[in-house]
Structure formats: C-alpha cells, structure tokens
Amino acid sequence: MKSFAYHQPSQVPEAARLLGALEDSKIVAGGMTLIPTLKQRLAAPPALIDLSKLPGLSGIKDEGPTITIGAMTRHADVARSAMLAERLPALATLASLIGDPAVRNRGTIGGSVANNDPSADYPAAVLGLGATVVTNIRDIPADQYFVGLFETALQPGEIITAIRFPVPLKAGYAKFKAPASRYALVGVFVAQFTDGVRVAVTGAGPGVFRVPPMEQALAQHFDPSAIAAIKIDTEGLTSDIHAEADYRAHLVTVMAKRAVDAALS
Amino acid sequence: MQISFILNGRPTSVEVEPSMLVADLLREQLDLTGTHVGCDTSQCGACVVHLDGVPVKSCTLLAPALDGATLLTIEGLQGEPGSNRLHPMQEAFREHHGLQCGFCTPGMLMTAIALAQDKPNLTEAEVRHGLEGNICRCTGYQNIVVAVMAGAAAMHAAGGE
Amino acid sequence: MSNVIGIGAAPKRKEDQRFLTGRGNYVSDIKIPGMTAGVFVRSPHGHAVLRGIDKTAALALPGVIAILTGEDVAADGLGTLPCGWGISNAQGVPMKEPPFPVLAQGKVRFVGDMVALVIAETPEQANAAADLLDIDYEVLPAVVGVLDAVAPGAPQLFDDIPNNICCDWELGDKAAVEAAFRKAAHIAKLSLVNNRLIGNPMEPRAAVADYNPGTGQHALWTTSQFPHVVRTLMSGLVLKVPEHKVRVVAPDVGGGFGVKQFHYGEEAALAWAAKRVMRPVKWVASRSEGYLSDRHGRDHVTEAELALDETGKFLAFRVKTLANMGGYLSTFGPNIPTNLYAPLLGGVYTTPAIYCNVKVVFTNTVPVDAYRGAGRPEATFVLERMVDVAAAEMGIDRVEIRRRNMIPKEAYPYQTPVLVQYDSGDPMGCLDGALAAADVAGFGARKAESARRGKFRGLGYSTYVEACGLAPSRFAGRLGARGGLYESATVRVHPGGQVTVLIGTHNHGQGHETTFAQIVSEKLGVAFDNVDIVFGDTDRVQFGMGTYGSRSLVVGGAALSKAADKVIVKGKKIAAHLLETSEQDIHFEAGKFSVAGTDRVKTFEEIAGAAYVPHNYPLEVLEPGLEEQAYYDPVNFTYPGGCHICEVEIDPETGVVQLLNYTAVDDVGTVINPMIVEGQLHGGIVQGVGQALFENAVYDDGSGQLLSGSLMDYCMPRADHMPMMNIATHSTLCTHTPMGVKGCGEVGTIGSPAAVINAVVDALSHLGVTHVDMPATPNRIWRLLQNASLPIAAE
C-alpha cells in the first residue's frame, strides 16, 4: 500500500473542507471497499479522511414515519437493531446478509451507499424504500442519487451523514449470494406503501434499478403470483463467469417473488 | 503517527504509518505472528482479531483505527502470557480435531469465540452461517463446527468468558 | 509401560498446542537481521514477446537494492527449472521438454510468468519499483483451452513444438479394446470436462533466502512439502552449487494439497538473489499472486466409451483425453494426466481391456501439476460417470451394474489390464456398508418429500479405488520418474530413553507428529509424550522424498517401523549382554527386554542408558549409542478405495444444488489414529465437493487473463455448503506395507466428485439430463433445465 496523509476531523464541516482542499483525497468510513482497493494498489490517494471521529454519525433513530440511520452505523448494528426488527425488519435482514460477521462489524451504511457497488445490498434498500440520502449540504432522493456504475449524485466535498428511510407497510429483501464473494448476484428489495409499491434490484446490472412492471403488478395485488410471469429484459444486465445475463434476469423474478413472500411473512 | 491501545490486556503505544494494516502491525512490528494473512480480498478470515470486543478482519483495518481501542489477538486468549491453560474454545478445537494445518485456526477461534459470546446455545446451522467469513481448506469444516458448538457450551458453563 | 499410546488410539494431536495459541512457525513469520523484501514482477499478458526491460527509473527509487531479470539469470549461468518425469509416446519418443527459465527469457507464456525480481528494503519500496519497471511486450494471441491449442492455426507457444503437443501418450492394448468393441452388445459414450482447479492451501506460498559468504552456505526457508527434493533440484540443476552447501527448511506449512510439492522458480530466484545482494530476501505471495503462480490442477477434456455385453458386463473401456499442461512443464506435470490417470481406469471393476490415449498439451496458462488426488480423481470421475451413463442407457440399476462388474474380495490380488496390481480390497463390502449407512432404502420417501416442496432430489454413487503410497521406485523409473520414491526415518533414542524421530516426510496438517509418535510408542513401548517427530529441515533430517500421493504413513511410516525394528534388534544385543544371555533368548515387549521364561528384565530406558554409558557393554562387537535409520522403498502402490454416496436436492427455480447427505465407507487399511483419518476424509471429501459444485479456474481466451483471479471469484467451499458427513472405514489390510496401512490423504477427493455429480444427474434424470459438467453451478443447472424445456414446478 502506498503511504498517505491521514486526517481525522472532528466535525463534518472540517471533513468537507479537507475533502475539498486535498486533491484526490478519499473518505474512509468502515474501509471494507477502500482498504482492499488500496492494498491491491488499484488506487493511491494522497490523503484519507477518516470519518470515525465525527460526532453524531452513528445510530438508528425512529422518527415515526421515517427511520434515520447515521452514515457511520455499522451493518452489524443495523442487523441486530430491535427497533428495526419491529419497524422495518427487511432492512435488518438485508444488513445481516452483507459479507460476513467481521465485515458487518466494520462496514457502514454510508460507505456502502457512497461507493454504490453494483452488487452491494444497501442500494437496493435505499432505492426500494425511496429513501433520502442526507449529506452535509442537502437531501438527495434515492431516485436521483444512483447514477451508474460506482457513480452517484454526490458532488466533490459532499459527505453522506445519514440515510432517511420511510417506513413502509411491508417490505422484504431476497438475496442470491454470489457464492465466492458473498455480494449479491441478484438482490431484490420490495416495499409496499400506501401509495404504491417499489421494487429495486441490485447485482443484476451495472447499478441498482427499479422494475416498474413489477411495481404496478404488485400495487394491484401484493402477492408473489402477481409477478411470477414478469420477465426482465436481459439487455444491459451483467454477464460474467458466475451468471449469464439471462440467468440473472430469471433470478430477478425469482428473488422478487421471494422478497414479496418475505414481506408477507 | 502515535497510537495507543490496549493489546491483549496491556497498554501499548506505537508509532505507525497511517497506511499500515493492523495485521502487518501485529506481525511485523509487534512480533505477534499468530494472526495470519491468507488472502488479499478480506475473504479468508485467518486474520480475525477482536476490536473492542467484536471480530474484525485485521487485514482490512488501518492501524489508526486502534487508537484508544482494545485489541485481542490469538496470543491473548490464554490470559497470562506464558500460561499453558487453553481457552475453552481452544480446548474444544483440540478435543474435536478442529484444526489440521493450523493456518486458519487463529481466525477461526476468534470468530468462534465471538459467535459463542453472542449466543449461548448455537445450532449447527448458526455455527455454519457464523463461519461464513472464515475459510478452511483442510478440515471440511465438520470438526470445526462440532468444536465451536462444544466450545460455546464450555464457555457458557465456565461463566461466559 | 504406562502412557503408551499406540496404533488404533486417538490421542489429541501433539501439534495442536502451538497452532491453537498462535505459536506456529510459518515461513511468513520468519525474520532475519538485515532482511530485504523481494517482489516478483509477473507478466500481465498470456502470451508475449519480451522485447526489453528498462530498469532505470525503478532502480532510482529509494530503498531499491537490485532488480534481476532473465538476462541476469542467463548471465549467471543458472539452469532451467527441471521436470521430474520424462514420459514417452508408444514408440518411445520422449516428450517435448522446453526450457522453463527461472525468470522469463525471450517470451512470456502465461499471465503470472515471472519477468523480474525486485529487491528493496521494504515491500512497499519493492512494489513501487515494480510499478516503475518499464517492460516492453509484443503481445501475441493466447490460447488457453486444450481443444483450441491443438487446432490448426492455434497460437504456438514454442517454435519447435508443433500443435502445442508435449506428448501423445498411450497405455493399454488398443487392439484388444477394438476387438471387444466390435462384439459389444452396447456401447455407452460420454464427453466430459474435468474442470481446472486452484489448490488454495490457506497459507500462501512464501520463501526466505539467505547466503553466508563465510561458509558458502545457502539457506532457504520455503513453504514446501518436500524440502530435500527442492534442495536436490535447486542446487544441482538450477543454482549449480554443491548440495551440501544448501540448506532447505520447510517449517510449519499451512496446507499443501500438492501445490507446495514442486520446485518453484521463486525458490531458486530468491536463493540466487540472496547471494547476489549479500542480504537475506523474503517473499510472501498474496492470495491473488498465488492464483497466477501456484500450479493449477486437473483441466482435462475427455471422450470415453464403454463396451458392454447384453448383461451389462464391461468388455472394454476406451478413453481419449486432452490434458492441459499450461505454459511449461512443472515438476511432476506430465506424470499426472498419464501415469497417475490411465492406470486407474480399471477402477474396482473386472473390465478386461482398457486403452487410454492422452494428449498432453501446452497452453498459455499457469503450469498444471498435481493437486490432491492428482490424476486419480480425474480417472475416477470419468469411470464412475461412465458406469452411470451405461446403467441408464441399458436400464440396469446403478448399484446392480456395479455389483455385476466388481472385483470380488476373493479375486485379490487382482491384475488390471493397465499396469497396476491391486493387492487387497473389498469394494463390495464398502458398497454394502455405504448402502446401509446412507439409508438408501429410505431414499424414495425422501425424494417424494422433496418433490412435494417442488425440489428434485438425487442420489449418487461412486465406488472407486486409487493408487497411492507413491511409489515403488523401480516401477516409477520405468514409467519415467527421474528420482526415487522411497522414504527414510531415523529413530534417535536419547540416553534417558526418550525418542526423537527424524523423518523425510513433511507434516503440513496431516498430524504426522501424532501418528508417527503413536507408531514409535507402540513399537518401543515408550510413552507417547516422550516421542517427538522432526521433519522439514535438510540440515537436521537425512534425505527424504517428502509428502504427497498419500505416501507419508505408507512409505514414511514403513521406514519408521523398520528403523524402530532396528532399535529393538540392537537393544536386544545390549540386553543380552547385560542379562548375560544370548540375543535369541531376549524377548522385547511393551518397553521391556526380558529373558524368556525368567523374571530378568531390563527396561527400554535402562538399555538406552547402557548404550550411551557403555561401561558394561560389548564394545568389541557393538557400537555405543542407540540410533537407527531405515530407508523403505515400497514394492507396490497401495490401493485404498471405497464407496461414497451423495444425496442432493436441487431447487429448480434457482438451479442451486444443496448437499443433504454424504456417506463414505472407505478402505484405508490399518487405521493408526481414527480421529486423524476421519479428519483427512472430511477434508478430502469437501475438496472433491468443491470441484463438483463450486470451484473453477476460468481463463479468458485470446488474452489469457485469469478471470477467477481471487477469492472473490474462485469459490471455495465454506462451512455452510456442507451437511454433517457420515464417515466409516471398512478396512482390508495392505499385504505389502509393514503395518497394513494404505493411506488416506487423497481418498476423499478422489471418490467424491463422481458421487456428487451422479447425484445431480440422478436428480435431473426425469428431465432427460444425462450429464452435468463440473462445477454444477446454479447457472449451469438452470441452463440445463431451460434446455430440457419441460415444465418446471416453480411454485
């Protein structure tokens, strides 16, 4: 690993200022993606800005119609949150399926959402629940946040401080793990709200995406059978040594059904 | 930079490069070579240590994260340095032949102990799932699973170490 | 004497204390004052001309000590990496054996081929210099698959090796096979792929080299399964320094599985470099670097045909295989798909005629060599799949067709038509034991229960035999071995009666320190705690061949047994003197030398004491001291085998194969430590399951890039992939090893892939599926189901 300067700011504005001032600097939260990248010398930022000393970035808050999770909240804390188990169990389930126990003890929701790995789990929940990505300067609706492969709407110097999730009537997440990496080969998050249903898919393509035909069908009838016949276009889906595009497309339907099942159970 | 932390029960203060990984700090600088590095993608789990009581992969942890923290490595499991007494989980691995070449063993033990601390009565399925981040090539896992269940029971019988 | 722990007992392992407490001593743990860091620069191209390397910028970086390349290797007159086997075709024409330079010269032939060694004060500095090394490649098209490599117009790896064929090898009576096929009532055919694997011992390879100009001594600590062989090959053939000036140490090694039983270029390069820079050099591979340089395993494409009579009796078996060697010949490379493959095609059956042709082929991939089982899993997979295919085509039950063709217990010793003669075995006994243990009778009900949940359940059998205990030297020599395959042991009795064993095998997980101590404890009546086993250091241990091919207990244990016998013989002479009787009257049992028919006794400790304090001692006819050495060269291979039964359930919606039950009844001969044997079987089986369901080394054609280049993409079996396995032994004794042992290191890996795939095919057979290639990934199963185009119970 190449050496770098290390900054541990104690306030968000200071972190943002450093991020803006230090060219090519990177934020490190849990480090679960960044550190392997640095180790393999795929990136060599001159400076890292560690968010771990920033106050108020960890924790899960029940705000009634919404739940806000601080950006530095670890996956393990989301997975074992009693409040989430009660109010939004699909999110706790999703967190419990990320990586492995040691990874969940370090990885953070903010880091995952900021990185926007096309196979990461959290983007499915953020998009599937229509969450709001809260940064140091603004609120970004999920539908505008995910731009493409590892690309987001975050501007230089912008730092995610929290994710605000609306609490759905029902929600479910089903994940088909890539057997080696344990990332999502396909993961589908389904959420039912009073005004409609959202279906978000991760792992299948170059970034998380919604499936409007499934959303419409489930809005009519929130049951796995409603989407069993809905096929996903293979165009643009990922094809690699683990899964060909048409298999991934098939898995989207299967996992969507299982997510609905999970939501109903 | 200077970092201070509790290492296996002892206050420790070292000068580190911020880019140093905890696994390298332990192995290269502090001569604690029981923590192993078996991969470069955070998959194998041979490097698992306890940071503030929870298992983490020390190959994917920068040394500055230790500042002010408590770290437990395989070398600290027996309590007093030089003690021949084994931790109940170590004893269970020995009793049930839960190790062969020994390379994955330190990480397996650290993960297993955390698993047992989290939950007193582990089922086979919970153990297998809980070992998701630890790869062993020798044992086929069977005796590890048996050992973890036995070790967890022994830990709780001994008062939840 | 008390505290003897002997054969058949299951003491806890001696080696565990250090491993459990983090006090193992692996190569990567070693530090030497003045140590530098070595980093290998590897080809990023599968196939390219190496036009030049500009070191200038890299050398200018701080901390950089030296950058060595193929030109330096050539200038210093180093030899190339040797191949330990020379095979020939049927006409006696030797295989093509291109030079395998320590660092690439002229061309690179696989991604990972070593181009330079950078030595710096720290790994970070060495890596930085490696990044700055300016290497001029002229990239050539790469060929990675065997079928493509032998096709007209394929890229040629070596100018003088047409069609990339190293050797067109054959074994068996071709004419007899053809005659049998002409009169066959049925001919079953099968095409299959034996997938390419990466061994993945959990400890990545590493080495530390040092040179002492004061003594002229090289020292190399390396992650090796056979340090003596590394010393011999490296000193004599590569470094060209006298063997006594080289010390090779393989301390605790974190798993081998074959991956660490070769002499690697890194070892020679580091030993050479340490002398050039007059500093110790340490190199530790990352996992991903290992994927590009550890020798891979398997990688066959095979067509097989079985001729049967109308009752399902096998008349003849014909197999044509293309075997991938990778870019160069590794230490055992050409031996694996030939001599360790074709002789196993008889299996446990009475097939009277067998013919096998193997084209050994170069490709732009990592060299392929032995990986746990090495040739024998490939053969077993071909044969056991073939039997199932034939049974299905002829409408004969899969167990029944096996019974009809199995070698009966009474027929041993049994000479096969493919060189080997099985000395002992009882395949029917193993089959019967496994059928009962697996509750095959209840399978129908379990299958129906799965069907009610919309799942497909299948049962698969593998009845197999392997040849291990490598190997009778004379026999191996005829087949092309360039070295011996005996083993050695020294039993050093200390004046106090404790024992240190120096043995030429290498312990890297197999529990030798425990098993061998049990043998000594039993034979000499010495307390188990008073026996220690030393291995892995050429300066401490006499020449030995190391550990591979399930040979340590079979060959090394035999040498140990012989050496212990010699100690007893000498002890009797000493006892006879002390007890004033003739040697013939001394009886040794349970650690006591006694005069037959009397109560006059000398303990083992007393005899040891007398041997080292020879005041009252027959010095005129007997040397003092009590230390004996034995070398043992086996007269035959051993033939462990057994029956594995696997039960799987397939989710037709996702194609996921779940392993529900796994039963193995194996014949491994005498069991010294049942706990350790069971552990070996567990691990072996799961490695075979890995091949069958998960593992696959995949190259990109054209570029030669390894697509499964890390643990993110190469799927190793994990704890949650497996159910609890049900393991038992049904042993017949080997007739030619001193203790009746057969070896158990590889059986699991050899028997299991066929059992798993036969179960998968069984689960899908109602859809017309007749074969599934490995690994049976969800995508592959789903594709088969799509192609079967039958309605799938999705709900």
Strand content of chain A: 15-25%
Can you name the CATH architecture of the domain at 170-264 in chain A?
Answer: 2-Layer Sandwich
Biggest sheet strand line-up of chain A? 4-5-10-6-7
Query: CATH class of the domain at 170-264 in chain A, please?
Result: Alpha Beta
Percent of residues in beta strands of chain C: 15-25%
Report the structural category of chain A.
alpha+beta
The main pleated sheet of chain C reads as: 7 strands, mixed
Report how far apart the termini of chain C are.
67 Å
Descriptive tags:
heterotrimer, A: 265 residues, alpha+beta, Uridine Diphospho-n-acetylenolpyruvylglucosamine Reductase, domain 2, Enolase-like, domain 1, five-stranded antiparallel β-sheet, four-stranded antiparallel β-sheet, C: 795 residues, Aldehyde Oxidoreductase, domain 4, Aldehyde Oxidoreductase, domain 3, 3 domains, seven-stranded mixed β-sheet, five-stranded mixed β-sheet, 28 strands, 28% helix
Structure overview:
- The complex is a heterotrimer of chains A (265), B (161) and C (795).
- Chain A has 265 residues and is of the alpha+beta class.
- Chain A has helices at residues 12-21, 34-39, 75-79, 82-87, 89-96, 101-104, 109-115, 122-128, 142-145, 212-220, 245-264; strands at residues 5-7, 26-28, 47-50, 60-62, 66-70, 132-135, 139-141, 146-148, 151-152, 160-166, 170-177, 184-193, 196-202, 209-210.
- Chain A contains eleven helices and 14 strands.
- In chain A, a hairpin with a 3-residue loop joins strand 4 and strand 5 (66-70).
- Chain A is globular.
- With 161 residues, chain B is an alpha+beta fold.
- The relative contact order of chain B is 0.16.
- Chain C has 795 residues and is of the alpha+beta class.
- Chain C folds into three domains: 16-22 and 486-632, Aldehyde Oxidoreductase, domain 4; 33-140 and 202-255 and 260-291, Alpha-Beta Complex (Aldehyde Oxidoreductase, domain 3), CATH 3.90.1170; 296-470 and 636-788, Aldehyde oxidase/xanthine dehydrogenase, molybdopterin binding domain (Aldehyde Oxidoreductase, domain 4, 2-Layer Sandwich), CATH 3.30.365.10.
- In chain C, the strands form seven sheets. Chain C has a seven-stranded mixed beta sheet, sandwiched between helices. A five-stranded mixed beta sheet of chain C has the order 7-15-14-13-8.
- In chain C, a hairpin with a 5-residue loop joins strand 16 and strand 17 (421-422).
- At the B-C interface, helix 2, helix 3, helix 4 and helix 5 of B face helix 1 and helix 18 of C.
